[in-house]
Design brief:
Layout lengths: L1 H12 L22 H16 L4 H15 L11 H17 L4 H14 L7 H19 L5 H24 L1 H14 L5 H20 L4 H39 L5 H33 L3 H4 L20 H17 L9 H11 L7 H15 L4 H18 L6 H15 L6 H21 L3 H14 L2 H18 L11 H20 L1 H18 L4 H17 L3 H25 L2 H8 L2 H8 L7 H6 L1 E3 L2 E3 L1 H7 L3 H11 L3 E2 L4 E2 L2 H7 L3 H8 L4 H6 L2 E8 L2 E6 L2 H4 L9 H8 L2 H4 L2 H39 L10 H36 L2 E4 L3 E4 L5 H18 L2 H4 L20 H21 L8 H37 L10 H12 L14 H34 L2 H18 L3 H11 L6 E3 L2 E2 L5 E6 L11 E2 L12 H5 L5 H31 L6 H32 L1
């Protein structure tokens, strides 16, 4: 209605003797031909209008404002920033006025304009508003300088342009449909709807052709074409035969007698290839003849003139013949030869035809067009996206082109490839549609082709000329203008000034980077846009921000080329960002940004059941992707993330198939467990719970349970998954006892790890046995000291320890230390000692100490020192008894002491075979910290009292100085002191000091230690199984690190993870899991976790919403929610009643009956309150 009012007002203001509505012709699109006087008047008036303003930008803004002030309802149609859109208005209008003397070119430009506006709803009233607004503005500025004839010419021109937009959109709908269907076919993406549409169109075409007469001229042309092709084929075959003969003779001349047999075989292969190629060329000629005998519509594009040229197609038929010849020949050749490659997609066929037609290997600017062609054809109905793709393509072509760019070459190869891939469907309508598409695309590309290089240089010169002070002022002015024009933008720019200046500086950098590396910038812009999806930034702000940036740059320079480059680059970036945000702002992402579980459930309920997982896991825009799940985790929307995980891991089923998102989740996000462990540990339990299904039925006291752990055992590369490594990294004993973690750990441990772990410890057990025999058993038996064979056994065992154990440890520690130092994984200890990271592990430190002790033992080995010494016959070497090695043997025994103890301590790892024993060992390790604190306190007391007693003058010999006092006091503490306290009766001061020490150490510290150990044990006991499993999981991870991929794959295959698991008897379900039987009383299962639906089984339908929403709700939750609602209502009524009672007591007269009712209401409210409280309590109890 507003548009009609605008049109009516525009009609009343027109001073003409004609009806303005009749100027909008939407029934045809003919060339516009004005008289010479009209053309001259329009061009002069337009030049005068521009001269009325100080700059072209000012004239453009005036035109832009004038249009939208006259028609406010049209502002929603334009999303491009004002600074860019206004210049486009002026540029397009100037172009049309300049082409008035060349009607054919003018028609092409207007058709291109209409092609870019196919996605807009252009109507007659809107076209009239635009026309009248522009004419009125020009007339208002020029006044009497513009004649009536010129005004009428302006009206004709603008009305003709508006009608052309409407006509093109109404007429070219069939062409767009043909483009979409044929493009999907040549890329193997044709749908059932496309096939039905093509069948209907084919039936209509045959019906029309049956009523037409066969054109004689076409038959004559076809016969001539066949004769020409036969002659050319014969000549080609003859040339080929001659070349083969020459090649064969040359080969025979160049080989000697030794290679004569190989030459004969090569010549035979050449002759065979000659026959095959000749047959292919002949069959190509036969195929062309058969095509000539077909229907007129299928072969009509071989003619010299096409009727489509009269309809705007302008197909180049002269080049169609050789293109078709070469493409068909290539296709037949591919079909005849079994070994040859047969192109089946457009890209493959284009590459083949590009070589056949003499354009060489696909590369350079042709490759850029080919890479962008899919996006161009797929978005032909989206004018903004099409313009964006063409602009980027022009930029990329300028970057890679080394010479003249002939876009007609791509057109020829494109049409030849399409004809080859669609031999049955191709007809005149296809020819017209694809020619029409390419002509419009070519005009869009040519608009900026060759300009971007100069623009880049101008922009670089501009930025180089701006110093730091001016750059700072420009950045500040951008935000001043932006906040003035768009105050709402301040809510999205709340960062500090330094951050805002960084953003503004990035704007300048991105414009130059777009010219320098458009390929990388496209990806960067897409990634930036997807990040803004998470920030929920309105796209309406981009236009105002771009306008502010352009206006500021205009004040900084008078270089029109630099201004135009900045405007064009920033506009292209803005369009890409807006498109990315628009395409990425799905309803799921909006729910994630709101961190609303209910919004997410409502949003995902609209998803088709076959694409539900994709909605939750992947939002793709261009080459960039964003995961709603990962964005929820990164942004802290854990409620939404938990809802996504829960929805993904719910098993849904219809009669035909099961739907379970575990495989999709791990396929899309292989690092999901790593992200959850590091960034959202609270989501681990819900994630793992979703991987378990338990049956509601029991059999013989056992319950069937399916654990879908395939993705936790193996990744897509066939290697061990990182699940256990990440779980161990968080060191949470509670998550270690989760059934899924237990299942994965036990499966690996019982399957392969325990065996390999034991085998890896065999050498250590042998080493321990050897050191026991050589150090603690055989040398201590006096009767065997003189037996030479026993001494040989001792020497052999010691050499075994040095040769195998010590050298093995040296090699391992050296390799790991070198690796850590190379990767920078080391820290300085005690200020100067570099310690590699692997030594921070307790076991690794133990092995390092053992290595050092064995090295010291080897350096002090007495048998080595006794070698070559003068020995008695009964004490022959090997022996450890010789002169001058007493001190060496003493040091050797000390090193042996530590080596033996370390050996035994390192054997504690074998406790991992028993979960209970491992838990006990871990508890002992945990309480050592309490014992350490006790020892520190005890040492402090010993030093305090020992130093005090040594000062005292007394005659007690056992406490004569500080060391002896410390020994005596410590002996008293541990009940090992042999003297009696009565010996101290004659030294009352000494006795008092000793009694005070006993009180502090034995009574206070010892009992405090017992209490601390008790509390620590109680605390750790709750998680001791978790700690034990954590220790076992660490061992599993360390063993898997050195496991061979083939062996691990063999183990995984033995588990049968690809076999479907039964839910119940005869109900075959989902693969990827392990089925076990658990005790029926271990877990309470009240309802089946598989949600089943009836009705249609189509994957395109949504799941029934009501059933889905109420599937997992606790029935008592509804009762509790209702009780709370009633409680709030009753409480509100009670407060209102009490307020009324207080007012009445203050002197306000009330009707007694009303007061009585209020009293009854209060009492009723109290009763209701107590009743509701009971209901709420009951509901809470049942819920708990």
């Amino acid at each position: 209605e507003m548009e009609e009012e605008d049109v009516a007002s525009a009609k009343q203001e027109n001073d003409g003797d004609y009806d303005a509505a009749e100027d909008i012709n939407i029934s045809s699109f003919e060339e516009l031909r004005l008289t010479p006087s009209q053309i001259a008047g329009v061009q002069q008036a337009w030049a005068a209008f521009q001269a009325c303003y100080p700059s072209l930008q000012a004239a453009a803004e005036a035109l832009y404002i004038g249009i939208f002030e006259s028609a406010p309802t049209l502002q929603s149609l334009f999303k491009t920033p004002k600074a860019i859109q206004s210049m486009r208005f002026v540029a397009e209008l100037s172009l049309f006025i300049g082409l008035l003397e060349r009607p054919k070119e003018l028609k092409q430009q207007v058709e291109s304009l209409a092609f870019r506006h196919l996605n807009l709803e252009v109507t007659v009233p809107r076209a009239m508003i635009f026309r009248d607004a522009i004419v009125d503005l020009i007339v208002g500025e020029l006044g009497d300088l513009i004649s009536s004839e010129t005004r009428v010419a302006f009206m004709h021109l603008l009305g003709w342009v508006g009608g052309a937009n409407i006509f093109v959109k109404a007429t070219f709908g069939d062409r767009l449909q043909i483009l979409g269907e044929s493009w999907r076919k040549v890329n193997g993406l044709a749908s059932k709807a496309d096939a039905e549409a093509a069948a209907r169109r084919e039936a209509a075409k045959h019906k029309t052709e049956a009523a037409e007469d066969i054109e004689v001229n076409f038959s004559v042309e076809m016969l001539e074409f066949e004769k020409t092709m036969e002659t050319e084929l014969k000549l080609d075959i003859g040339k080929l035969a001659n070349n083969m003969d020459v090649l064969e003779k040359n080969l025979e001349k160049k080989v000697d007698g030794v290679a004569e047999g190989r030459c004969s075989q090569l010549c035979a292969n050449l002759r065979q290839g000659h026959k095959a190629i000749s047959g292919s060329l002949t069959s190509a000629g036969s195929s062309i003849k058969k095509m000539g005998k077909g229907s007129g519509s299928k072969g009509r594009f071989f003619g010299k003139k096409d009727v489509a040229t009269d309809q705007g197609g302008d197909a180049d038929m002269e080049s169609a013949e050789p293109e078709t010849n070469m493409s068909i020949s290539a296709g037949d050749n591919g079909n005849k030869s079994d070994a040859a490659f047969v192109p089946t997609t457009f890209t493959e066929m284009f590459t083949f035809n590009c070589q056949v037609m003499g354009f060489g290997i696909v590369g350079g600017w042709i490759k850029e067009v080919l890479d962008s062609f899919d996006a161009i054809v797929s978005n032909v109905t989206d004018a903004v996206r099409l313009q964006e793709e063409c602009d980027l393509l022009a930029l990329r072509i300028d970057k890679v082109a080394k010479g003249e760019v002939n876009l007609a070459q791509f057109k020829s190869c494109m049409l030849a490839s399409l004809r080859s891939l669609l031999p049955k469907d191709w007809d005149n309508s296809y020819e017209v549609a694809w020619n029409w598409l390419w002509e419009n695309v070519e005009r869009l590309i040519a608009k900026y082709l060759g300009k971007t290089a100069a623009w880049h240089q101008s922009l670089v010169r501009l930025y180089d000329s701006i110093d730091d002070d001016l750059r700072y002022k420009l950045r500040a002015e951008i935000y001043e203008r932006f906040f003035v024009s768009t105050p709402a933008g301040q809510e999205f720019f709340k960062q500090s000034d330094t951050r805002l200046h960084y953003i503004a500086d990035r704007v300048f950098i991105m414009t130059t980077d777009l010219f320098a590396n458009p390929w990388q910038m496209v990806d960067d812009i897409s990634a930036l846009g997807l990040r803004h999806v998470g920030y929920a930034v309105p796209t309406e702000l981009f236009g105002a921000f771009v306008t502010a940036c352009v206006e500021v740059i205009q004040t900084a320079t008078a270089d029109l080329s630099a201004i135009e480059a900045f405007r064009w680059a920033l506009g292209l970036i803005s369009k890409s960002l807006v498109r990315t945000i628009t395409e990425g702002s799905t309803i799921v992402m909006k729910a994630v940004n709101a961190n609303s579980k209910s919004m997410l459930e409502r949003a995902i309920a609209l998803a088709p059941r076959g694409k539900r997982m994709q909605w939750l896991l992947d939002v793709q825009v261009g080459t960039q992707r964003i995961s709603p799940l990962f964005w929820a985790i990164d942004s802290g929307s854990l409620a939404a993330a938990q809802a996504i995980l829960k929805d993904l891991l719910v098993i849904r089923a219809d009669r035909e198939r099961y739907y379970f998102g575990a495989d999709d989740l791990f396929k899309q996000h292989q690092d999901i467990m790593s992200r959850l462990c590091r960034e959202a540990p609270s989501l681990l339990a819900p994630m793992l719970d979703g991987l378990v299904w338990r049956s509601t039925r029991t059999e013989n006291g056992q319950r069937r349970a399916n654990y879908y752990v395939k993705n936790l055992l193996i990744n897509e590369d066939g290697e061990p998954a990182e699940f256990l490594r990440e779980i161990c990294a968080i060191k949470d004993p509670k998550i270690m006892v989760h059934p899924v973690v237990v299942t994965v750990s036990d499966t690996l441990w019982n399957g392969i790890i325990s065996r390999y772990f034991l085998l890896s410890r065999v050498w250590f057990i042998v080493s321990l046995a050897a050191i026991m025999l050589s150090q603690a058993v055989l040398p201590k038996i006096r009767a065997l000291e003189a037996v030479w064979l026993v001494r040989c056994v001792i020497f052999a065992c010691r050499c075994l320890n040095y040769g195998l154990t010590m050298n093995r440890l040296i090699a391992q520690n050296t390799l790991r230390s070198f690796r850590d130092f190379r990767r920078g994984k080391w820290k300085l200890k005690y200020g100067c000692i570099p310690v590699p990271k692997h030594l921070t592990n307790t076991a690794a430190s133990g092995y390092f100490v053992l290595m050092v002790m064995l090295a010291c033992m080897c350096a002090h080995e007495p048998m080595f020192y006794c070698f070559g010494a003068d020995l008695e016959e009964e004490n022959a070497w090997p022996t450890a008894t010789c002169e001058g090695i007493f001190d060496i043997k003493r040091r050797y025994s000390v090193f042996g002491l530590f080596a033996m103890g370390t050996h035994w301590l390192l054997m504690v790892d074998l406790a991992a075979f028993s979960t209970g024993l491992s838990a006990f060992v871990l508890i002992c390790a945990q309480v050592m910290s309490e014992i350490g604190r006790f020892l520190v306190a005890l040492v402090f007391l010993l030093l305090t009292f020992a130093s005090s007693i040594s000062v005292l003058e007394h005659g007690y010999f056992e406490m004569r100085d500080i060391p002896n006092s410390c020994v005596a006091l410590f002996s008293i503490t541990v009940l090992l002191f042999e003297d009696d306290y009565r010996d101290l009766l004659y030294e009352p001061a000494l006795l008092t000091a000793v009694l005070l020490f006993v009180l502090a150490s034995s009574i206070l510290l010892m009992n405090l230690l017992i209490a601390q150990l008790n509390n620590t044990y109680v605390f750790i006991y709750q998680d001791m199984v978790g700690f034990a499993r954590l220790n076992r999981a660490n061992i599993i991870v360390s063993v898997l690190a050195g496991f061979r991929k083939a062996d691990y794959q063999k183990f995984i295959d033995s588990l049968g993870l690809d076999d479907p698991l039964e839910f119940n008897q005869g109900d075959v379900g989902i693969s990827g899991g392990i089925q076990i039987f658990e005790p029926a009383n271990k877990y309470a299962v009240l309802e089946d976790s598989v949600i089943r639906f009836g009705g249609s089984c189509s994957e395109d339908l949504e799941w029934p919403e009501d059933t889905l929403a109420n599937a997992h709700k606790d029935p008592m939750a509804k009762v509790e929610a209702l009780a709370k609602k009633v409680l709030r209502r009753v409480t509100k009524d009670s407060r209102a009643a009490k307020s009324g009672t207080r007012t009445a007591s203050g002197g306000v007269s009330k009707d007694m009956s009303s007061a009585s009712k209020d009293s009854e209401g209060v009492s009723g409210a109290s009763g209701g309150l107590s009743g509701v409280s009971g209901i709420s309590a009951g509901a809470s109890m049942v819920s708990d």
